[in-house]
């Protein structure tokens, strides 16, 4: 396949200042007429042919300035329309008529039907599946869209911008016209037509303009959209207050559809959402679902400024909108909920998804330099690491200069398609700082490692840190340059307070942050009488791995006393991770795993510390997951040993704390009506962590069954079902709960996704057959991305022992399933195929079986660009 390179970027010879679209909708044959006003970028340049992108299009009619074009004046294929010699004048119009079949569009890109609703997805390159166009983000056009449809089939006709006209066409047909005054790239175009219910509200902006808000959902589901509407209004208020950004159209609409390749899409004024991220009530959604809805509603809304008003020059700049918008939604959630808890959750996500990507064959810079299929670059690196890079800019500049830089960026580039260089320049100019070395975070792949040793000279009252940075090689980048790493830190004294110090390497230490710029730094602190415990990378100030030579007693001390809540959580997590790594080695050698009694004591202390939020305590008490432990071990992974070690640790802690955990579990029970707020969710999560521990002891299945039957919300119900289906597999209690859940929710597809996912994650060798069996369940469908992600996505990426079964049966199912899915939906198949990206860290036998599965896929004739790109890079 073709490789696209950043250095090949060239502005287009032609611009499209205005785009008029007319859709005559019909499931099997929709007629699209695009009337494009085309202008030469340089009026004195002539003669360049005009090449428009297409993808599987059928051309029905073509006119230039109102006249049909001669056959030899153009060439049309499904993938391209070339006008050989466009007219000499600076501006001309091209009318293009194409025909598409929404009902046959199973790839869910372009115009398709979901549950009888016409909808679109154009990012990144879906618009070319609707009409021929300059389908690239630097072509900004003002759109006017006319939609015609049968009123009965589609009483609702929506597009971007503001509604301008609507009326009857006779014969049961009607039309609506929408006009979006803001020039936008084609990837932000959207259309929705169908029969949907609405939740309507309004918002008055800071300058007093009234905006109509609508959330469109399946009829009868309006009561499930209230939380999303509330999150939307809070997002609008927050963006005004924190970034000074006001909404700019008369309407803002959100439509929930059930067949969607990703989470949601920020189309101008008409966001389209996966219904999973809109619909919620306590009976059907978990606290995690509520938090996701809030974050994604905010994320898409924030794109209106970071993405839409200022868009990307080309797809290499994807992080310009995504990393920045993730940073904005993280900050929003931190403000709406608990900042420390949110930060811990972010770091857990980053480590679970971005670190393995950065440390494996699919590693790429936050701003990639090449791609074969852009859809494969909507990654944790672009999104999550991209957000961390923005966070570091704020750490380096301080909050005030950061805001000035953002203001300058908006002021300079509003209405433009910008680059990462433009973005960084705004901060450099606003703060008067050089971000030259810092920019490597965008250009260089790989997770930097920072190694720290320390020494204390009591006589001189000096404490010295020796710090060294290195960046491991990544595909096609063997030699790395030194990074600017802002490392927030504290020196914690025996009373738990940060010690005051004077730093000798004054240039590198600033406001509690060591700025690493060289390979090695020696930082000497004077006035330090006692040997402190070092708290490093506080708040996770840099997305790095740390190797610190530190005594267990220091870590235990920090876990109890560190003044930075993130580092406090980190210390406990490190203690548990180290213990689990040691234990899994013992298990592999057929020895019993030893655990220090200090760990269970620490759990006692954390649970009993009423100065800590419930949610924090829940996070601290949750041992690292199997994949986290595997990542820390890094190579020669045996998932079964890791699983056994983790179970042993849970049981060990639960045994020591049996009475305490039982009492706390009772105390934390529901009282009063359900609320999805952060504190209530924290209480539930702590209680469910305690359930997890207690279920490892005698009577665990009965306890979980009681929890399941007593549950008055989905969070508790799903937590209990997980314990039963995982730890008490095959018991009557587990079977009964699975059946009950299935019966209760069989007609609610989103809830059935939880039922599929819980079973797909069940540890042990039986999961392969279980997953195969579930794929034939009446509630399952190979055509729906949510079903595929719940069952197969969970199994491939979230079931260490089941998927990585020693005989390779999981990998065989992987190859078979991905090839099957690819026939309909290459994008989803490619995403699921990343489930084997860490295959080289497995022990040799599993490694070879995994490789064979990947080779089987790679050698299948006629693979899509999406899938072949992933498997070839994974095998390279
Ligand atoms: N911008 C979209 C993602 C589009 C993915 C295209 N394959 C959603 C978001 O990040 O907000
Ligand atoms: Zn986004």
What would a concise description of this structure say?
GO terms for molecular function: alanyl aminopeptidase activity; metallopeptidase activity; zinc ion binding. By secondary structure, this protein is an alpha+beta fold.
Describe the 3D structure.
40% of the residues lie in helices and 22% in strands. With 876 residues, the protein is of the alpha+beta class. Among the domains are: 4-195, Immunoglobulin-like; 311-443, Orthogonal Bundle (Neutral Protease, domain 2); 449-542, Sandwich (Immunoglobulin-like), CATH 2.60.40.1840; 748-876, Zincin-like fold (Alpha Horseshoe). The longest helix is centred in the middle third of the chain and has 24 residues, at 565-588. The mean pLDDT is 97. Bound molecules: (3S)-3,7-diaminoheptanoic acid and zinc ion.
CATH fold naming of the domain at 4-195: Immunoglobulin-like
Sheet-strand content, in percent, reads 15-25%
Structural class: alpha+beta
The rounded Rg comes to: 28 Å
Instruction: Return the average pLDDT rounded to an integer.
Output: 97
**CATH homologous group name of the domain at 4-195:** tricorn interacting facor f3 domain
Unreliable runs:
none
Please give the count of helices. Answer: 27
Say which molecules are bound, naming each kind only once. Answer: (3S)-3,7-diaminoheptanoic acid, zinc ion
Spatial sequence of strands, sheet with the most strands = 6-5-9-3-2-12-15-14
- First-last Cα distance: 16 Å
Shape: globular
Secondary structure: helix percent: 40-55%
Name of the level-1 CATH class of the domain at 4-195:
Mainly Beta
Main beta sheet, described?
8 strands, mixed
């Amino acid at each position: 396949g073709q490789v696209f390179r950043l250095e090949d970027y060239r502005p287009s010879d032609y611009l499209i200042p205005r785009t008029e679209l007319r859709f005559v909708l019909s499931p099997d044959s929709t007629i699209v007429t695009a009337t494009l006003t085309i202008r030469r970028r340089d009026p004195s340049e002539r003669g360049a042919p005009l090449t428009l992108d297409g993808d599987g299009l059928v051309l029905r009619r073509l006119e230039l300035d109102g006249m049909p074009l001669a056959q030899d004046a153009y060439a049309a294929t499904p993938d391209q329309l070339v006008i050989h010699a466009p007219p000499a004048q600076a501006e001309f119009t091209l009318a293009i008529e194409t025909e598409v079949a929404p009902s046959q569009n199973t790839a869910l890109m372009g115009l398709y039907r979901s549950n009888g609703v016409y909808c679109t997805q154009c990012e990144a390159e879906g618009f070319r599946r609707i009409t021929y166009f300059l389908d690239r983000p630097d072509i900004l056009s003002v759109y006017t869209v006319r939609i015609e449809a049968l009123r009965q089939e589609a009483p609702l006709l929506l597009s971007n911008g503001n509604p301008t006209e609507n009326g009857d066409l006779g014969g049961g047909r009607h039309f609506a016209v929408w006009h979006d005054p803001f020039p936008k790239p084609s990837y932000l175009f959207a259309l929705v037509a169908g029969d949907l219910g609405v939740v309507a509200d309004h918002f008055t902006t800071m300058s007093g303009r009234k905006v109509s808000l609508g959330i469109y959902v399946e009829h009868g589901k309006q009561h499930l959209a209230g939380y999303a509407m509330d999150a939307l209004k809070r997002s609008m208020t927050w963006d005004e207050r924190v970034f000074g950004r006001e909404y700019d159209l008369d309407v803002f609409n959100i439509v929930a559809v059930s067949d969607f390749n990703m989470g949601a899409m920020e189309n101008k004024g008409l966001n389209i959402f996966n219904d999973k991220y809109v619909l919620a009530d306590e009976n059907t959604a978990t606290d995690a679902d509520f938090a996701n809805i809030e974050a994604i509603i905010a994320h898409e809304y924030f794109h209106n400024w970071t993405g839409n008003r200022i868009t990307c020059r080309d797809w290499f700049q994807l992080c310009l909108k995504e990393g920045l918008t993730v940073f904005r939604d993280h900050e929003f959630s931190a403000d709406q909920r608990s900042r420390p808890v949110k930060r811990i959750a972010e770091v857990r996500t980053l480590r679970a998804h971005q670190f393995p990507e950065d440390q494996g064959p699919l590693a790429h810079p936050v701003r990639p330099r090449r791609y074969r299929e852009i859809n494969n670059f909507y990654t944790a690196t672009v999104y999550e690491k991209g957000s961390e890079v923005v966070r570091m800019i704020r750490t380096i500049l301080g909050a005030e200069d950061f805001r000035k830089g953002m203001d300058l960026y908006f002021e300079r580039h509003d209405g433009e398609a910008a680059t990462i260089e433009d973005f960084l320049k705004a901060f450099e100019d606003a703060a008067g700082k050089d971000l030259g070395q810092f920019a490597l975070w965008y250009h260089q792949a790989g997770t930097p490692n920072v190694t720290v040793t320390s020494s204390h000279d009591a006589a001189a009252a000096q404490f010295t840190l020796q710090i060294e940075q290195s960046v491991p090689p990544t595909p096609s980048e063997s030699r790395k340059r030194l990074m600017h790493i802002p490392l927030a830190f504290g020196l914690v004294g025996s009373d738990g307070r940060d010690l005051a110090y004077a730093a000798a390497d004054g240039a590198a230490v600033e406001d509690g942050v060591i700025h690493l710029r060289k390979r090695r730094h020696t930082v000497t602190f004077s006035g330090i009488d006692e040997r402190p415990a070092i708290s490093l990378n506080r708040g996770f100030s840099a997305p790095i791995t740390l190797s610190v030579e530190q005594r267990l007693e220091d870590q235990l001390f920090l876990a109890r006393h560190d003044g930075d809540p993130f580092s406090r959580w980190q210390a406990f997590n490190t203690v548990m991770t180290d213990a689990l790594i040691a234990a899994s080695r013992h298990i592999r050698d057929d020895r019993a795993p030893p655990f220090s009694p200090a760990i269970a004591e620490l759990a006692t202390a954390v649970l009993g510390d009423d100065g800590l939020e419930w949610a924090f305590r829940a996070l601290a008490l949750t041992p690292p997951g199997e994949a986290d432990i595997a990542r820390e071990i890094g190579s020669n992974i045996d998932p079964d040993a890791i699983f056994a070690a983790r179970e042993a640790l849970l049981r060990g802690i639960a045994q020591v704390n049996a009475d305490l955990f039982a009492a706390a579990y009772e105390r934390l029970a529901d009282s009063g009506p359900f609320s999805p707020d952060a504190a209530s969710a924290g209480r539930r999560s702590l209680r469910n962590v305690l359930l997890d521990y207690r279920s490892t002891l005698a009577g665990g299945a009965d306890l979980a069954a009681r929890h399941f039957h007593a549950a008055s919300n989905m969070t508790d119900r799903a937590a209990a079902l997980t314990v039963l289906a995982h730890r008490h597999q095959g018991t009557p209690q587990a079977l009964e709960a699975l059946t009950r859940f299935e019966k209760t929710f069989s007609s609610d597809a989103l809830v059935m996704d939880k039922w599929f996912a819980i079973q797909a994650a069940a540890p042990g060798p039986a999961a392969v057959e279980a997953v195969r069996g579930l794929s034939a369940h009446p509630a399952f469908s190979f055509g729906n991305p949510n079903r595929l992600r719940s069952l197969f996505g969970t199994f491939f990426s979230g079931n260490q022992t089941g998927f990585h079964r020693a005989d390779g049966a999981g990998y065989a199912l992987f190859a078979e399933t991905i090839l099957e899915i690819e026939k309909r939906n290459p994008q989803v198949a490619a995403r699921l195929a990343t489930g084997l990206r860490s295959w080289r860290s497995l022990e040799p036998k599993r490694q070879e079986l995994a490789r064979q599965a990947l080779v089987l896929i790679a050698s299948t004739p006629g693979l899509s660009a999406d899938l072949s790109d992933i498997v070839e890079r994974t095998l390279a």
